[in-house]
Design the sequence.
């Protein structure tokens, strides 16, 4: 898992509540990513970060925000969770120095929105 | 826009038989190609990657893939599967100058005894 931890690993919440997922890495990697995994869709990029306070949108960013106030943590927030955001969320990093942007993935967070 | 298509959503196969998982990509620029494996209730693990050079790429666990530029394909093969190869497999593409991976929809491989 390339030194990536995600918390929580499982969460059940109700529609309309805010939820924050945390991705933590210990090796000062510059690039970090959040994906969601849904059956038949593979993984889709939500947001990514290329440094502290530097973030950009992916293909499915609506309803999600991110923050990166320090190198090791990349937070994903659902401001008001909806049932369509029930999914498995994966964090990934690109190791520093890699020229081809290979990505390594964390263990995932399973989120259920009731 | 870049896209990746995995032509089979499920592939049942008997133990010790060969398997091929098909992947096609569309891109007008050079791409890097990857195959990842996801075992049940786990994250994604890189099987192999094509960056440049030889079109036949060998990966872990006896898997290999062949890059075919004219057919825009990157099919994954294993000559003899084991029960432990039961997993979901994802093909992914990355533009050579970019940092956003595009994934296919995944292929579930079920190896039967």
Sequence:
């Amino acid at each position: 898992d390339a030194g990536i931890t995600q918390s929580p690993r499982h969460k059940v919440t109700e529609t309309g509540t805010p939820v924050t997922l945390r991705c933590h890495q210990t090796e000062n990697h510059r690039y970090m990513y959040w994906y969601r995994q849904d059956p038949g869709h593979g993984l889709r990029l939500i947001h990514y970060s290329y440094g502290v306070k530097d973030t950009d949108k992916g293909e499915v960013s609506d309803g999600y925000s991110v923050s990166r106030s320090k190198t090791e943590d990349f937070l994903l927030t659902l401001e008001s969770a909806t049932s369509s955001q029930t999914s498995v969320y994966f964090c990934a990093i690109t190791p520093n120095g890699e020229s081809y942007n290979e990505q390594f993935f964390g263990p995932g967070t399973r989120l259920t929105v009731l | 826009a870049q896209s990746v298509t995995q032509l089979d959503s499920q592939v049942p196969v008997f133990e010790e038989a060969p398997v091929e998982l098909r992947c096609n990509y569309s891109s007008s620029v050079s791409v890097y190609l990857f195959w990842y494996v996801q075992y049940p209730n786990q994250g994604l693990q890189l099987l192999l990657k094509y960056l440049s050079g030889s079109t036949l790429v060998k990966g872990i666990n006896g898997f290999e893939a062949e890059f075919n530029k004219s057919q825009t394909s990157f099919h994954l093969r294993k000559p003899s599967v084991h029960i432990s190869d039961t997993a979901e497999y994802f093909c992914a593409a990355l533009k050579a100058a970019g940092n956003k991976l595009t994934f296919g929809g995944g292929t579930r491989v079920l190896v039967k005894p």
Remarks:
- Residues 17 and 79 of chain B are 7 Å apart (CA to CA).
- The longest strand of chain B covers residues 87-95.
- Chain B touches chain A through 25 residues (CB under 8 Å).
